[in-house]
Amino acid sequence: MKTAGAAAAALFVRDSSWGQSKAANAASVDFSPQINPHFMITPDQAWDWASFKSQGGPTYAGGAGWKRYTDFLISKMPEFGAVDLDYVEIPYDHYIVDDWPDRRTHIYHSGMAVEKLVSDGTPVPVVASYGMTSGFTPAEGITAPMVYYDATHPPDNSQIAGKILVFQTAPYPNPPYTNSFLDNFTLTDYEWRSPGKWAPLFIPPHASVTSSYHSRWVWSQLNGFAAIGIKGHAAGMVVVYDLSPGAAFGLAQRSVYTPDGKAGLGAGYVNCPTLTLDRVNGAKVLMDSKAGKTATLTLSARFERNTGKAIIAYLPGKNYSTARDEQVLLATHTDAMSLIEENGGLGMLGIMSYFNRIPQTTRPRTLIFYFDCRHFMPGGEASWPQFDYYTIHPERLKPVVATLGMEHMGGRQTIEAGPDGNEYMYSSELPENGGVITSLMDVYNNNMWLVETIAKAATDNHWPRVDVKAGNVEPGINGGFQGSVKSPMNKGRAYKIPGIGLAGDWPGGWTQTYAQVDTEAGPQGFDKNYFVQQVAGLSQLAGELMLVKPIVINLGWGELKSALINLPDSAFVHHQEAATRRHALVDQYVAAFRKVEVAADGAAKGALKELTANISNWVVPDRQADLRALVEEQISKLS
User: pLDDT for 262-286, tens place per residue?
Assistant: First the structure.
């Protein structure tokens, strides 16, 4: 996995100074980002909040659980100093299956089942879940022959029409893997990560170590299956997941059953009711479908026009309501099927509570708290852009200097174990070795200050499981492909503003309807101590973003850094000296950036001009102009 920039990337091993003191960039000498433990929420308080949320169950936008949860958030915010709450109402067609909180709704012989399958006259004992937005059947279900979808010899549309189409999820492909596969289903290279035991890079980790990657691979196939069933006019579908009964039970994801796979207000959904099964309960169904046996599929569901609501709140800084006010935008989503996915709103309350203990007169910048609700609406945020708060109010982005997102907090890591892999349980590893779900940290624009500040916050607050990634903009610390963090909560990426985002690794046990405080893996899937460590680390990051001078986190620094590190050997006049020259250019960049960090702008300009001179001397002419333009752009921003 080595690249031309591997040697240069290895330069960014963080020293103990963490990029030197931020004092020269401080907006207020009375404010410190270091966490005062006396101001922090307690683990017991975190547990109480999590228990309250869990008692309401799934929090799909506009639903009863969501209203209960958001009413709680809104009621607590004034207590923690929030003012000027604003809202965006978001109507949509909410797909509802009334299966929570009673697991018997999945069990055929319970007399309460709303999800049922009878295959060749034999009831399937337990149905794991359903295809979200897939539709519904009459009370008596639909009866039709089954047809098995063999990917090597697929049935044509005429063979699918009017049938119950049965899929079996595919195993992992054989290497070599594409970058897309590596990015989604393996551990990839990184900017920084916490000490501890980690699975090897670029290899799908076994489900006995973490269920996250294999579960994600399995359920990610559902959308492709749905497209085939819709195109072929199937009467219904069954998907047999290669998952243990515990891992598959209640598993849901935001599938979109429309002809083009797109969602939106008033979208025309295709009625193709879909049930999902685990590998145990699905084994006979697979055999029956290959033999063309008949099945009866029942799914009781409905669409209901509901209205979600995004919430904006402000914790004022010292210049609030004046032209001098600068702001840091914190964001999460409030909608999901389980506790961990999503309890970021509770993390936001923890941060709000912390900074409310610090006098407004010493808070350098205002904190904005954005509670979005589009994440599990069909198609996610991308299908509902017109309801983004800052699309509606673009002028309100002007004072925002940085963003901080968060989702999936405090979860314990689930695994599949046992001789046949069918035992679903929590990992017995220590938190630092993977006993909790990894805090995947997204840094938009791979800025050195952002990476080092995350590392310091993690170390200072004993945050045990952190993996920092910037995406495929440059090689990681080991010189290999660096994946990205799939979190839209770091709003900086959408708004082109420097930002950081936390996404606890997913799905773990956290895309299951019944994964509340307890999950199918057992009791107490929420680690209250880990949650508080995350809140402390995020609070310190918010404090740093309240202090840092905007020039330090300017997006141009990351663009220049990546351009230098990614220079191929062919870009140098003397190819045989490419590694040495690349290393020297990056060294000069680092030296200049360190001057910017301590507000030594004159020295920074001098270092950047030296960098330009060496680019002219060492880089071939047709590669110089773009590099010089990046350097000059940064020089122009210095005072």
Answer: 999 999 999 999 999 999 999 999 9
Report the amino acid identity of residue 130: Y
List pLDDT tens digits, range 91-138.
999 999 999 999 999 999 999 999 999 999 999 999 999 999 999 999
Which are the contacts of 269, defined by CB distance < 8 A and separation ≥ 6? 93, 95, 133, 135, 257, 258, 303
Q: Which two tokens stand for residue 347?
A: 């993390």
Mapped onto helix, strand or coil, the DSSP state of residue 444 is strand
> Which residue stretches of 99-237 are H helix?
157-160, 179-185, 212-219, 222-231
Torsion of CA 34, 40, 43, 44, to 10 degrees: 170
Q: What is the CA radius of gyration of the chain?
A: 26
Taking the C-alpha atoms of residue 548 and residue 418, their distance in angstroms, rounded to an integer, is 50
CA distance 143 to 281: 19
Indicate the pairing of strand 236-240 with strand 274-277.
parallel
Query: 85: alpha, beta or left, given left = phi > 0 and alpha = psi -120 to 50?
Result: beta
Q: How far apart are the first and last CA of the chain?
A: 41
For the stretch 564-598, what's the b/e string if a residue is b when 16 or more beta carbons lie within 10 angstroms of its beta carbon? Answer: bbbbeeebbeeeeebbebbbebbebbebbbbbbbb
- Give whole-number Cα distances, 18 to 14, 451, 453, 594, 626, in Å: 6, 9, 7, 11, 30
The count of other CB atoms within 10 Å of the CB of residue 158 is: 9
Taking CB atoms within 8 Å and a gap of at least 24, the contacts of 123-126 are 124/277, 124/281, 124/282, 124/284, 124/285, 125/281, 126/245, 126/249, 126/278, 126/281
User: Residue 273 in contact with residue 136, Cβ under 8 Å?
Assistant: yes
Structure token pair of residue 42? 């307690």
What residue ranges in 136-256 does DSSP mark as E strands?
142-148, 164-168, 192-193, 236-240
Half-sphere exposure (CA, 13 Å, Cβ side) for 138?
A: 6
Exposure of 536 in the CB half-sphere (CA atoms within 13 A): 26
> Measured between alpha carbons, how far is 602 from 554 in angstroms, rounded to an integer?
17
> Would you tell me how many other CB atoms lie within 10 Å of the CB of residue 49?
23
Q: Give residue 29's pLDDT band: very low, low, confident or very high (50, 70, 90).
A: low
- In whole angstroms, what is the distance from residue 391 CA to residue 384 CA? 11
User: Is 354 exposed, middle or buried (CB count within 10 Å of its CB: 0-12, 13-18, 19+)?
Assistant: buried
Phi, psi of 202 (to 5 degrees): 65, 15
Burial-class residue 523 by CB neighbours within 10 Å (0-12, 13-18, 19+).
Answer: exposed
The phi, psi pair for 461, rounded to 5°, reads -105, 15
Alpha-carbon distance of 11 to 454, in angstroms, equals: 18
Q: How far apart are CA 309 and CA 384, in angstroms?
A: 12
Of 101, 94, 105, the C-alpha closest to 60 is: 94
Taking CA atoms, 5 is separated from 12, 370, 578, 627, in Å, by 12, 38, 10, 16
Cα separation, 460 vs 497, in Å, equals: 26
Dump pLDDT digits (tens) for 512-532.
999 999 999 999 999 999 999
CA distances from residue 171 to 221, 284, 463, 618 in whole angstroms, order as listed: 11, 19, 34, 48
* Number of DSSP helices (H) and strands (E) in the chain, helices first: 18, 19
Tokens of 217: 């691979």
Range 623-627 contact pairs with CB under 8 angstroms and sequence separation of 24 or more: 623/567, 623/571, 626/563, 627/560, 627/563, 627/564
